[in-house]
């Protein structure tokens, strides 16, 4: 019996190590885990320690327990989706998972489904509109959306405006959602460096609505219908 118990505990420990490695791989980005007091060129603790080999190491004890804890199916799925967001920090991922425990199941499943859309402009827009429908947006969700937008290639505003599949109504709803999430006055400041200046928004909105009217006129003229 003692031998069986030893084998069982050994299997659990190996499973935990594999889980830790996976969390580090996707959250921290190509690092190797070490236990406290091990590795590197010194005895310092904390994440981001670089050893003599030049390979970044992260101490196992620095991993937030929530990233290894057993959660219900919905929140486990969200945690997995978060680990696949490009370059998302382990700290922010953990904050989001913790906050998910206070959110409704509907919110968690909807956000998970949207994040599964991958690293695209449309995913960012969908998440913005989902969060914009809430009365109050928690800081971690705001930070998540901001991160997702920042890792996209610069020019999201221009690409969205130039997308003929995005109607004028959809364009307006997206901008309205961004203002609700980041604040009416703070939008430009929050999205600093992404080109979301008030001047740019007004300019692209005018072009977007102008093109929309031209398309509408062209369609009704060709069909002879003005309904």
- Main beta sheet: strand number and arrangement? 3 strands, mixed
What is the string of SSEs from the N terminus onward?
HEEEHHHHHHHHH
Helix content: 55-70%
Spatial strand sequence of the major β-sheet = 1-3-2
Q: Overall pLDDT, averaged?
A: 78
Low-confidence stretches at least 5 residues in length (pLDDT < 50)?
26-32, 36-58, 214-227
- The geometry reads as elongated
Helix-strand category: mainly alpha
Keywords:
3-stranded mixed β-sheet; 227 residues; elongated; mainly alpha; 3 strands
Compile the SSE list and pairings.
Elements: H1 2-29, E1 32-34, E2 49-50, E3 56-59, H2 73-83, H3 90-100, H4 105-115, H5 121-132, H6 139-150, H7 156-162, H8 168-182, H9 187-190, H10 198-223
Account of the protein in words:
The protein is mostly helical. Among the domains are: 19-24 and 31-37 and 46-63, no CATH class; 146-227, no CATH class. It contains 10 helices and 3 strands, in the order αβββααααααααα. The chain has helices at 2-29, 73-83, 90-100, 105-115, 121-132, 139-150, 156-162, 168-182, 187-190, 198-223; strands at residues 32-34, 49-50, 56-59. The protein has a 3-stranded mixed beta sheet with strand order 1-3-2, with helices on one face. The longest helix is centred in the first third of the chain and has 28 residues, at 2-29.
